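Please, structure for the following, as tokens.
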Amino acid sequence: MSQAFDIAIIGAGIAGASTAWALLEAAPSLRIVLIEMEERPGYHTTGRSAAIFIESYGGPAIVPLSRASRGFFGAPPAGFPALLQHRPNLMIEGPADPGGLERVAAEYDEGGVGYEWLDADALAASPAGPMLKPEWRRRAVIEPDCHDIDVAGLHQGFLRGVDGAKPTLVTDAEVTALERSGGTWRITTRAGAFTAPLLINAAGAWADGMAALAGAAPMGLMPLRRTMAVLRIDPAPPADLPTVMSSDGSFYFKPDGERLWLSPHDEIPDVPHDVRPDEMDLAVVIDRFEQATTVQVKRLESSWAGLRTFAPDRLPVFGFDGAVDGLFWCAGQGGFGIQTAPAAGRLCAALLLGGNPPLDPAPFAATRPGVRNHP
């Protein structure tokens, strides 16, 4: 026996959950099943996010998705908690990257992102100033309108659905077969079988593998490992410390209470699995941090790693497959999947239901040139 639904979504992380929510926002009577291979949704990537909203993040091509999501974050719909806490983003420049801030500013200008220049005196007087060594404190660029995101609150709000209409969540449901017959998909999993006319591939790092099961060509999605270290430092980070990023992309850090989150901003090619941090990556980023700052690292308290999955052109993939009937892609959200989730979900829902998308979908289409060739 199989359970019948209108739409089946493989993957209950932020991509699948936001799409399910947006579909129910537009059509509350839809029967939607979210199929998750882990025992809880959001295990691999959503739950390992740096939890930041930085409009410039991902580059100018991603700015429209982030900008279209801002209203949702600023005034969340019913069922969501307050989602944002103000935390500016500060770009600093080290001696190994002269002119790096001009490169950053040019990218901000291309995306129409608001920013300000800080000279040495202004940077020294900022919350980050006392932490930085003189050679890292000559000037900076600050993006004031940035925030921390309550990722758990966002994800759970999507899973709760809209006004009592919610998706059916099935966990521990690794997909073992996908078959289409008579206009209907049959999804066989370790937790049972499900049928639906429409199948959404929101499987993150596993999305190309799901496509193969469905008889579709892969998108060439690349899972990239990113590492995060949680440190105790002396002195403890000030509560109003901005997110601080190096212009050369070699590290970033932000406060978490009395602790500091520190990442090497790494993108190490990997394979879909339960990724773990590498001890060498942790040692390297702690050394970079100590070279740039005056604070003392007391201990490494914990660490984790997550997978950021990109298409070859580093843009997300939203839309019908173009070659396999009834297959829809919602994948390749890289490191910006959390902050773009509201707009991405509504964009996918509009494409699926024939509504008005919140922004131009063409740059993200599954059939766009440069991603793969369709028969």
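The first helix runs from residue 14 to 26. The chain has a mean pLDDT of 95.
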